[in-house]
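Bench log, entry 3. Co-assembly request; chain sequences pasted below exactly as received.
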Amino acid sequence: MGVLEKKIAVLPGDGIGPEVCNEAVKVLKAVAEKYNHTFRFSYALMGACAIDETGSPLPPETLEACQEADAVLLGAIGDPKYDQNPHAKVRPEQGLLGLRKALGLYANLRPVVAYEKLLEHSPLKPERIAGTDILIFRELTGGTYFGEKGRTADTAFDTCTYSREEVARVAHLAFKAAASRHGILTLVDKANVLETSRLWREVVQEIAKQYPKVEVAYLFVDNAAMQLILNPRQFDVILTENMFGDILSDEASVIGGSIGLLPSASIGDGVALFEPIHGSFPQAKGKGIANPMAAILSAAMLLDYLNLAEEAKCVREVVQKAINSNILTQELNKKSPYTTEQVGSFIAYTILEGVEVAPHKNNIEIGLSTII
Ligand SMILES: NC(=O)c1ccc[n+]([C@@H]2O[C@H](COP(=O)([O-])OP(=O)(O)OC[C@H]3O[C@@H](n4cnc5c(N)ncnc54)[C@H](O)[C@@H]3O)[C@@H](O)[C@H]2O)c1
Ligand SMILES: CC(C)[C@H](C(=O)O)[C@@H](O)C(=O)O
Ligand SMILES: [Mg+2]
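Structure output for the full assembly:
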């Protein structure tokens, strides 16, 4: 038996979800082998694939598998047949939202960094984005996503509701993170218009008194959207509500050069869930062009959550090596010959061997055969 034994529920999902998830699992297997741990993976259905198979986007056995696990790894969910049909009553996204709610995952952490080597790949000016290191805290189980909804033939509504407690619990996590980083927390809201945003400000101002070393800044979301790409280095920790966090984090991914690089951790009352911030990118399904790094970096966040800090650091360092060696998928380098699988294998193999393999296609294929 290994040093540590952990159960990881894997929900590959739809579109490119299974492809990027495979690479993250491959990396976790390499970590287990290198550090002599035992990771037991249990696979379950969620999203469109679960609807096809069972009629439900979140079958009870999937929820059980997650509740029994030490951590959950998710690829992505979503399918054009639902995206293009506003009348569909059952939708893949209900599975994801239902799971977040059922597991009490109220805080979604989305780190955004500008990798030195990728500055030239961002559409933004390198001198503006170099050195960016932001941690977004997105509230994940409240707001418009979960408020009362309704529909008549000619009207529709989605209500946004937040309680003091819902704001306070995620705010405390964000303040603690800011205190351990650069000491700046920016609350992003729309307090000039929304009642919920005014509650957020009130609660955050109250909680700020408990964190005297953290400087608090306030920005309206429209201005924040602009500041994020004009001067991202002004941000350390961003705290915001559910929908603003969803939108701002996709926008922030442009700083790093690709949404295929952005991982996330969803934490709360019990087991935590780790997933890339991107979706199922259905146009890329089966083509081997999806970047697996967001999923692999989500696996690194999972390792941190399991208190395997050294292992998590090793994964991040090897991802950095892959970037430095130009082992990239095509959205970051048009001429790159590497597929999703080869990028994942390079990372897994380098972790296992402890040395950087020459960035050569054959080595990557040899690496693949030693891990699987
Ligand atoms: N957490 C999730 O599972 C999640 C998140 C977002 C969207 N979705 C779902 O995914 C489906 C598609 O949504 P969408 O097209 O708006 O968003 P998306 O994130 O799937 O894709 C948007 C664009 O981002 C890029 N991209 C995404 N992932 C990439 C990767 N790994 N490597 C390289 N480039 C990547 C592509 O250019 C793509 O066109 C929808 O059904 C949506 O509901 C799911
Ligand atoms: C698929 C969708 C429900 C989801 C969200 O809006 O939370 C996604 O965009 C995300 O960012 O994880
Ligand atoms: Mg999103």
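The domain at 111-261 is CATH 3.40.718.10 (Isopropylmalate Dehydrogenase). Residues 358-364, 366-372 have pLDDT under 50 and may be disordered.
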